[in-house]
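To: structure subgroup
Subject: Chain for Friday's discussion

All,

I'm putting the inputs and outputs inline so they're searchable in the archive.
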Amino acid sequence: MEITETKAESLRREFKIVVAAADIEEQVTGRLREVALTVRIDGFRPGKVPLSILKERYGPSIIGEVLEKVVDESSSHALEERGLRPAMRPKIEIVSFEDGLDLEYTMEIEVMPDIEPMDFSKIKLERLVVETDEATIEEALANLAQSRKTTEALDENRNAKAGDVAVIDFVGSVDGEEFPGGKAEGYELELGSGSFIPGFEDQIIGAAADEKRRVEVSFPADYGADQLAGKDAVFEVHVKELRRTVPAAVDDDLAKQVGLETLGDLKSAIREDHVREFKSVSRMRLKRQVLDALDADHDFELPAAMVEAEAHSIWHQYEDQRKAAKEAGQAEDPDAKSDDELKAMFDDLARRRVRLGLLLGEIGRINNIQINQDDMKRVLAEETRRHPGQEQAILSHYQNSPEALESLRAPAFEEKVVDFILEMATITDKPATVDELMMDSDEEAAPVKKPKKRKAAKKKTEKKSKPRKVPAKSKAQTAARKKAD
């Protein structure tokens, strides 16, 4: 085997590899002899079929099998011989091969860059700590009670106001004709909820029970149903009854509604959930600080193919989200960045992800950090807890799908490497409120000062645009509403 390095530029390497015809023929013959032990051909006893007949019948498939093996082994040998670690799968191109002649092919790769991790003891972090007080528990109970609210008839004779529930019959029409889904009876509409087309609820406020009103509105131009988008509509509405919302009582019955026995049990469960959630969010923020510190203090050449693949993935994910938003009837932000600006931002994000991915991988390799069976069991248990009521289905999914289970390994490895770094970093606990803990790091009034990055490129952050609320429709419009939501 002849291995010739034809290019060595930065992280790129190219090789010309020639494998002698005799070596290939030897492997083909050996494979044919293996086949001869099991194949049955009329007129020959098992194991006695001449190699010439076997080669005529099975030669092409066996040669293809041998070539694949030879290329795999010879390319791996070329890399191992030079101590090179490929960043991605090598690109192989067959230059020439004919039966009885040498195999010649080229191999193009990008190798892993040289990475020297920083001294992790120099990393200084701030961990937000939130205490779960009684006020927080009471607020959570009030929100739960509100979510379990019911309605009751008004005990006073007055007109509708925001917050009331109007029980209505209505028929909608466009250009004098009723449209599908524009009719309902006994619909309970909470006034001020914004669940109907803009302007509809406002025209019901002030109505009395048993009053009929003519409501004139315009469907938004970006409405989910194309046949109604931008159209003027008229609704003939009969306000049959006015009701008020009544939160559920905060007592043992509320606890029973969520599967617990007593109010005390419910308070304990809320407290445990809050402690767990606060610790999880605090950990995520701490991890973000670690990644920011690593990103700021390391600057090494990145394999172009990895950056390109990551940027491509981010862009297509964004396009899928944009398409889904459009199908849901969400209007485009007039101040949104252009595609070119977004691609530049995503390229920066891709570089950060690749840099951190390579760095964390190298830290794990140098320090022999590995994911064992206990780690995978813990990760799987955490994944099932994220889906209350579906634990068994989630567990079965991962147990029956090695590929799905393997997808949990990379995040688990990353968390283990971050834990390794946290053991050496200096961490200062800082008391915080719930609002401070939950605040987006990009919105903080006094962001933590980040260390200066050597030869660092400008880093941009991901900006998530909030989806615009789409006006909902009546219960009779369920099919069209699914598209909008």
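Points worth raising on Friday:
Residues 2-110 form a domain with the Alpha-Beta Plaits fold (CATH 3.30.70.1050).
The chain has 13 helices and eleven strands.

D.
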